[in-house]
Specification:
Blueprint: H1 3-9, H2 15-30, E1 50-51, E2 58-59
Antiparallel strand pairs: 1-2
């Protein structure tokens, strides 16, 4: 399953998420480079916390913008 299919299956929590979902899908259809920073209007990014099992340490990665 590709990213677009995953977004299409997402069930929005509220009206704002529904609008955001529609905008994202529209933008993805019009911009094949949505995952690249070269996309002039916007691009997709993601964030995550990576912690050890005891939650006493965290992995930090610098994102050079």
């Amino acid at each position: 399953m590709n990213m677009r299919e995953k977004i299409e299956l997402y069930k929005p929590f509220n009206e704002q998420e529904e609008r955001d979902k529609e905008l994202i899908l529209e933008y993805m259809a019009e911009n094949p480079n949505i995952f690249l920073r070269e996309s002039r209007l916007a691009h997709m990014t993601a964030s995550a916390w990576i912690v050890n099992k005891e939650r006493t340490k965290v992995l930090m990665v610098y994102h050079n913008i």
